[in-house]
UniProtKB/TrEMBL annotation:
UniProt-recorded name of the protein: CN hydrolase domain-containing protein
Signal peptide: 1-27
Keyword tRNA processing on entry: no
Record key words, sorted: Glycoprotein, Hydrolase, Signal
Domain CN hydrolase per the UniProt entry, residue ranges: 44-316
PANTHER family recorded: BIOTINIDASE-RELATED, CN HYDROLASE DOMAIN-CONTAINING PROTEIN-RELATED
Length: 603
């Protein structure tokens, strides 16, 4: 009897222990977390003929860090679990030589050493900025991500790449946990004319874990390349990105809020983007972006505007959008190594594009703003496999569907947008006749540099391919009124959207863009905004329990600005066009892009 009672007691104890453990573990798994990003109106150092002494450099940096400390306290009081600060936010972006920047650099040890600067500030000399950042995290119980300069010693006698100063200089992101311990650092791999920094020999894969997910780090210009962004997201299953940036807007396709929100939505990740605030130089636009759209953002182009803290509670994302990664192959040699090759053909294209003017008075274009709640599954895969020099490094088949409602400027355009990539390396024609048909279709694509005249395509072009064992019919309803125009130094193929039309297509090399649309005349300013809701994303937003508030920040500015009555009356002098570009962009950097766009043009 005593033994039976003892067994019952043991069973009850084990049950209670397991139940308690289960409850405790469940309590630690968060469904939401609170993120903060700060757009910093930074204090810039003076540009002097000679480097400043370390003491003066430290004084300048601490002016900016004091602002960080204040904003971190505010974010923590609002319940933030993590805060991200911008690239160049501590010392600015005006120190363009290695010598001028050197006094602002600090030695940053490897995170594997588990160093806590706040607890052990004297372990490494001249690490005052790291001490301040670490204590910010520790005293406010918050994860802190910031961008500072890392100087790593090297030996000139044994390392032929070692600079004559004996130090490599890296543009570096650092992350500290809630105790102030350095848990991650990342050396920016894709530098944008940053001659004061060294490029790492290979891209870092920098990841740190939190109770609300694993975070990856990369910086600004990196976002346009395969390495490390796609490595992190698709190979390492990272669904949260902390993104310090000094992003200069370049319309119509590279504005901060537009690009970063699309990146998050397309790949199905949380994306915390912190930008510096310098509107006179077009540095502005920060936000907290999710797979459901922008949770909150700040975009203010006024020169007298200041920085802004954005704090939002957002859902935890366990993994990125898997179908966005389908077909990606990030185990291949580095795409950036291929892109930065400079054979004669690419140099020639670069020179021609640099000389082109985009100020044609009769063809001024304006980017159409899409409502964030109308974009659906924006990316379905891009295969970035480098090949020989001069050959496009990726060819992949995918479908991209964008449903965009009427823009908030009451423009009379409703569209359903489909993008098709043609893949030469992933398919075989189903029979010889179809292969011949496919070859003929491929031959009809035109090298844009070979002509400036309008290109004529057949009205209907069909091809059948086999992708992963599945036959797919591609129907390209191409029209013979195509024209070409330079947008941001890339020559697009475009077709006008007619008032009587309902659908059209346009192709450029391996990319075809299809659109279903309706156009109506505007009779006055009181046209009601309309948004299509027949896509998965809008349905998810409509029924979501997370209602993102974009009005909490007092100075938050909506990207779309209402047209004036005069602009509406001038609609008869304008038209819309569908455009496509698939190729190497060589103005201010080299990277491959594929773009489907709707633009508004003057007649």
């Amino acid at each position: 009897m005593a033994i039976k009672s003892l067994n019952d007691c043991v069973r009850k104890f084990l049950f209670c222990s397991v139940f308690c453990l289960t409850q405790c573990v469940s309590a630690d798994i968060k469904n939401v977390f609170t993120a903060a990003v700060y757009e910093h109106n930074l204090y810039l150092p003076p540009v002097t003929p000679l480097p400043l002494p370390r003491e003066r450099a430290l004084e300048i940096m601490m002016t900016n860090v004091h602002v960080y400390q204040e904003q971190t306290k505010i974010a923590a009081l609002k319940g933030a679990n993590i805060i991200v600060f911008p690239e160049d936010g501590v010392y600015g972006m005006v120190l363009r030589t290695r010598a001028l920047l050197f006094p602002f650099m600090e030695y940053i040890p490897e995170p594997e050493l588990g160093w806590n600067p706040c607890q052990h500030p004297d372990l490494y000399p001249e690490t005052e900025i790291q001490f301040a950042l670490s204590c910010m995290a520790r005293y406010n119980n918050i994860y802190v991500v910031a961008n500072i300069g890392d100087k790593q010693p090297c030996n000139v006698s044994i390392d032929p790449s070692c600079p004559h100063t004996g130090y490599y200089q890296y543009n570096t992101d650092v992350a500290y946990d809630t105790r102030g311990t350095l848990v991650a650092k990342y050396h920016k791999y894709n530098l944008f004319y940053e001659f004061q920094f060294d490029k790492p020999s290979k891209p870092d894969i920098s990841v740190f874990s939190t109770p609300f997910g694993r975070f990856g780090l990369f910086t600004c210009f990196d976002i346009l390349f395969e390495h490390p962004p796609i490595d992190l997201i698709c190979s390492h299953n990272i669904s949260n990105i902390a993104f310090p940036t000094a992003w200069m807007d370049a319309g119509p396709f590279f504005t901060s809020v537009q690009f970063h929100s699309a990146f998050a939505l397309g790949l199905g990740i949380n994306f915390l983007a912190a930008n510096i605030h310098h509107p006179s130089r077009r540095f502005h636009g920060s936000g907290i972006y999710t797979p459901q759209g922008a949770a909150g953002y700040y975009y203010n182009t006024s020169n007298d505007s200041g920085g802004q803290l954005i704090v939002r509670e957002i859902p935890v994302v366990d993994q990125p959008r898997l179908k966005a990664c389908r077909g990606l192959n990030s185990s291949q040699p580095f795409l950036t190594d291929h892109i930065h090759t400079t054979d004669e053909a690419v140099q020639h294209d670069d020179e021609k594009l640099q000389q082109r003017s985009i100020t044609d008075a009769d063809s001024e274009t304006e980017s159409l703003y899409y409502d964030k709640a109308s974009i659906n599954d924006a990316i379905d895969g891009v295969n970035t496999i480098p090949e020989e020099k001069g050959i496009r490094p990726y060819q992949h088949k995918a479908e991209i569907h964008l449903n965009a409602g009427v823009a908030s400027d009451a423009s009379p355009l409703k569209i359903n947008f489909t993008q098709t990539h043609t893949a030469a390396d992933n398919y075989e024609s189903t029979d010889a006749a179809e292969k011949a048909n496919s070859s003929e279709t491929e031959a009809q694509f035109v090298d844009l540099d070979s002509t400036t005249d309008s290109v004529r395509f057949p009205n209907n072009t069909n091809s059948v391919i086999s992708l992963n064992g599945t036959d797919i019919l591609l129907r390209h309803e191409l029209h013979n009124d195509m024209f070409q125009y330079d947008l941001f130094y890339d020559r697009f193929n475009l077709v006008p959207l007619r008032l009587e039309g309902s659908k059209t297509s346009v192709c450029h090399t391996d990319l075809c863009c299809h659109i279903s649309y309706s156009l109506g005349r505007i009779h006055g300013p009181g046209v009601e905004n309309q948004t299509q809701t027949s896509n998965e994303f809008q349905t998810a937003c409509k029924h979501s329990t997370y209602h993102f508030n974009t009005t909490e920040d007092s100075e938050e500015v909506d990207v779309a600005i209402s047209n004036s009555v005069n602009k509406r009356e001038a609609y008869e002098d304008e038209f819309y066009a569908l455009g496509a570009f698939d190729g190497l962009h060589v103005y201010e950097g080299r990277y491959y892009i594929q773009v489907c766009t709707v633009i508004r043009c003057r007649k």
